[in-house]
Amino acid sequence: MHIKPKITTSKALAFIFVTIFIDVMGLAIIIPVIPKLLEQLGHALPPEASEINGWLTFTYASMQILFSPVMGNLSDRFGRRPILLTSLIGFSIDYTFMAFAPTVFWLFIGRTIAGITGATMSTATAYIADVSTGDKRAANFGIVGAASGLGFVIGVAGGAFLGAINIKFPFMVAAAAALINALYGYFVLPESLDKEHRRKFEWKRANPIGSFIQLSKYKALAGLAIAFTLVYIAQKAVEYQLPFYVYEKFDWTLISVGILGIFIGVLLIGIQGGLIRYLIPKWGLKKNIIIGLISYGAGLTLIAFANQGWLLYVYMIPYCFGGISGPALQGLITSKFAASEQGELQGGLALLSSISLVVGPLIMGYSFKAFTHKGSPVYFPGAPYILGALLILISVLLVIRSFKKDVTLQGVT
Questions:
Q1: How far apart are the C-alpha atoms of 223 and 229, rounded to whole Å?
Q2: What is the pLDDT of residues 359-391, one digit of tens each?
Q3: Average pLDDT of the residues in 167-183
Q4: Nearest alpha-carbon partner for 56 in 21, 27, 92
Q5: In 115-124, which positions are buried (b, 16+ CB within 10 angstroms) versus exposed (e)?
Q6: Fewest CB atoms within 10 A around its CB: which of 268, 274, 364, 396?
């Protein structure tokens, strides 16, 4: 007879750390090689490959927009565990398609499957919300950043070194990692959402419009939600354009990208895994959000004008420090929702993130192509980073306006 393991906060957070780590590692492992793979399959130079990558991400994000609310609501009905496992299996199938794809078309098939099932992050954060209380809620969201940082380190470095051997190897490893994590979760993961906190599944709430309606109940959070989306769009300049940027501007190798990825990951681990637990109690949520966003914008601007490759190491410091804003912003938003609504909330936030994935990589990809293709009137590979910095500036203004206008947030530090 199967006995449900007793869940503890430390045990739950440890599993979520591993889940997000492997998930992000699987995503990061393909970052250094996706430009090369697209050049190989699509016979495209970096500017054109960047555009194709934007449409691949558009496909993935569009599916998430349609299905993340469904998965979030299903997790509120049936629990977090089955949704996490389904998502991981979907990612494994996606990476398998990417490993053996004979043409670019098959990459789009894989991204479609991953987008439909890709609710891992939203369900994982709902899991954190389930087992977190009080002031520890925002700090525990820092685990997402720490796990992401470590996964990014191992993923980008592994992808670079494996890709240097064979362009297919990183995708095969990512597929295996997602499948192994699904098996691990099947045998180990306890359910975090008690049956008494579950609610009936409703289609009217399990759709993008329903998620927006749910978020709109908290009108005071509208400015924060828009800022949340703009920040995610701006981040795409680094997450999806950096390999294209350094290959084009500095003629870097796969190994060079891997080394930079290690450096970025170490920064993220230190800042979001450790420093943020000190800064949230010291500065409070509002100051962490504002200071973090300003740091993001400064980092993006500096990256845009880097004239030597080694300067990217310096400029990544303020950019990564900006990561303190994410957990603080998410902690502030989630504190306004009941336990029975956390899955739906995270599905809604995942929806906003997916919207940023729909427009972000496309905008960044086209801006990169516009300023780097042959015959371009102005050669400026840093264009996506300037665009990202402008979006961060808008988000800062929105956040400040929200704090001043919203009386319901008074007293939240």
A1: 10
A2: 888 888 889 989 998 888 899 999 999 999 999
A3: 87
A4: 27
A5: bbbbbbbbbb
A6: 274
